[in-house]
Amino acid sequence: MMGRPLAGDSTQVGRQKMIQIHPLLDGPFREASALNPGEIQVWRVSLAATPARERNLKAGLSAGELRQADGFHFAADQRRFIVRRAVLRCLLSAVLDLPPNQIRYVVGVHGKPALPNHLNPKGIRFSCTHSGDWALIALAVNGELGLDLEMHREIPEVQALAQSHFSAGEVAELTALPLTRQITGFFNGWSRKEAFVKAIGVGLSYPLSHFTVSLMSAHGVVPLAVADDAAMRRRWTLVSLELLEQFSAALVFEANQATAIRCLAWDGD
Ligand SMILES: CC(C)(COP(=O)(O)OP(=O)(O)OC[C@H]1O[C@@H](n2cnc3c(N)ncnc32)[C@H](O)[C@@H]1OP(=O)(O)O)[C@@H](O)C(=O)NCCC(=O)NCCS
């Protein structure tokens, strides 16, 4: 397949560590089997699918996933669910060298899914997110990670929403932005905050005002400040990814986990 460079970057974390963010390339699912301990793979997945492709993908889901799929009111939401869950199975199947229908999940108390130990001798971790007709899936060997994608859309009450979810520093940064940049700034912040709470796996039980992210546009490492918790700040690295126009995307991972982030695309072919 043809490579399609989108963005490439090398960015320093702390004093010694360089994180290499590779350009986005097309990759068939088997590329997942090349995942190694020094890298994180981030897959960009198109959730647009023809009815025939959707039927094919649906055949690979578990009974529980089929029941969940049937619960969607809108056909478009059902299609997106089927495609993202089927592609996750295909990627995990490649990396674990197991048939897709043998993949099982365990779910943490706050809803974070993981692989059961008996299926996972390599210690594979993953995180998933979707927005609009796109999903992202991150895969890593050992070490937790969290991923979030947000499609930019108009929010009339953006300041009020920031007041209730952002830290004081984030609200100040948003307010100082020109009005035309506030939606981008808001979704940059939102995606970075969600990636962090997804990495630590606790969802809303972690107070969102206890940490501060930068809202500026960036491709690469973004400062993350966790109030009163230097250990937490040292443990996690936050990276902003530019994988789609008019979307914000962020990945949070354990700081000693990877030296390279490989971005791969599956656009449904
Ligand atoms: C878990 C949560 C982060 C999901 O976010 P979302 O934007 O609704 O949806 P996303 O597509 O990004 O992520 C969904 C995936 O996250 C994963 N997930 C679910 N709970 C999770 C948790 N506690 N930790 C990590 N990942 C989780 C699942 O893989 C899920 O996929 P599924 O829907 O196929 O089961 C969200 O439900 C939540 O708790 N949000 C609280 C955080 C918040 O309000 N942040 C605001 C920041 S300003």
Task: Give the name of the CATH superfamily of the largest domain.
Answer: 4'-phosphopantetheinyl transferase domain
- Calculate the terminal CA-CA distance, rounded to whole Å: 11 Å
> How many structural domains?
2
Order of helices and strands: EEEEHHHEEEEEHHHEEEHEEE
How many β-strand stretches?
Answer: 15
**How many alpha or pi helices?**
7
Q: Label the CATH architecture of the largest domain.
A: Alpha-Beta Complex
The distinct ligands, each listed once, are: coenzyme A
Protein model, in words:
- This protein is α+β, with helices and mostly antiparallel strands.
- The protein contains seven helices and 15 strands.
- Strands 1, 2, 3, 4, 7, 8 and 15 form a seven-stranded mixed beta sheet that branches. A four-stranded antiparallel beta sheet has the order 9-14-13-11. A two-stranded antiparallel ribbon has the order 5-6.
- It is globular, with a radius of gyration of 18 Å.
- 36% of the residues are buried.
- Residues 1-7 have low confidence and may be disordered.
- The structure holds coenzyme A (COA).
- The site of coenzyme A has 19 residues, from β7, β9 and α6.
- Residues 110-113, 128-130, 146, 148, 165, 190, 193-194, 197-198, 201, 203-204, 208 line the site of coenzyme A.
